[in-house]
Amino acid sequence: MAASGAVLLLTSLLLGLLLLLGVWKRWRRWRTTARHVAVVVLGDLGRSPRMQYHALSLAKCGFSVTFLGFYNSKPRAELLQNDRIGIVGLTELQMLAVGPHVLQYGVKVVVQALQLLWAFVKMEPAVYIFLQNPPGLPGIAVCWLVCCLCGGKLVVDWHNYGYSIMGLVHGPTHPLVLLAKWYEKLCGRLSHLNLCVTYAMREDLAQNWSIRAVTVYDKPASFFRETPLDLQHQLFVKLGCLHPAFRARSEPSDLTTERSAFTERDVTSGLVTHQQGRPALLVSSTSWTEDEDFTILLEALEKFERLTVDGENLPSLVCVITGKGPLKEHYSHLIGQKRFRHVHVCTPWLEAEDYPLLLGSADLGVCLHKSSSGLDLPMKVVDMFGCCLPVCAVNFQCLQELVKHEENGLVFQDSEELAAQLKMLFSKFPDPAGKLNRFRKNLRESRQLRWHESWKQTVLPLLVDA
Q1: Cα–Cα distance measured from residue 357 to residue 278, given in angstroms and rounded to the nearest whole number
Q2: What's the pTM value of the predicted model, to 2 decimals?
């Protein structure tokens, strides 16, 4: 009781401070023309690329930006070096290890609400607060309250539904999931502007939530592009220091030659070429969560291995799965149990600047994202397409808004279908006349719009007119 009374008292004091702060900031707004925007993520800033892109685009358009969230992973250097962007890191507290799960979650929500309130108390007034959802609990309510008190406008960027992600863990009828759904529907209507990631989500928000949203498709940033061969070699040599899969299978007899598993460089001339008989490089990225079933990929790789052993004309395969998340240890254990001879799997965490270089160096991307709501699209595929990297993606409800089967990639349902696609795509590798190169050619010719150009067309007019 004493603890709950202290929390209530602290909350009341902070609300009082915010009320006074709101009056002062409204008065100050009359005296300043500065345009300040808060971009808020109740998650890891370094693993929130879309919100990083919002912050960068806002800064490029003359806004000063405070990027607020948990600083667990380093954001891109471009953001860190931007004079118009300041980062405010929150401390991520672990959930209590005792008591009912509902109580643990409730304490976490209260603590995060207090952290967020206090951050806004110290912050310059914001004309807009951009908030990523999910997670929206308690962010939507807190940011709406701050906007009411300080005269700002709340912009919710709907990436998915938080309750649907919770439902993967607890089941759709769990009280926490039902409470989260009620909260999301109620508080989601309080925003001034709503953005979302697909046409399907826009329709669902309108029909089932009475929320009008604007679809802002994910687009690749300008740094997602094909990687020149010399930079590929530098990356492979760098990664080879920690991951044997990137190292040359044999040392060159000529001391003037530097090798990786895929490339070799003449030290004298600096010329870089692909190695003869090199392995194919397959890349997947993940947050290691319940909405991605990596047993599908592992089973397909086992089938690919058997085909290679049986004499099919297939290359060795290096499979790189990059990312951080709660299920990484589980899948790493499963990978460690495999006895591959022709397939090498590694799970590095890449620096932000190395990830686009890896995608631009790969031969094929694989996406196992299966939307918990069926309404969001995997940003990793957008990034792969930005690098002109063909993709095999597991099918779900609105995937056709992004992946066009037999045009920029392939869609599969299960491990059998994925294994058959790997066999077909890598047969006679590298084959200039094969489907991999045809898909890559289609991606090159599509001349995709990049994030900032798309943002200026879709989001900036909303801020000017709001």
Answers
A1: 18
A2: 0.86
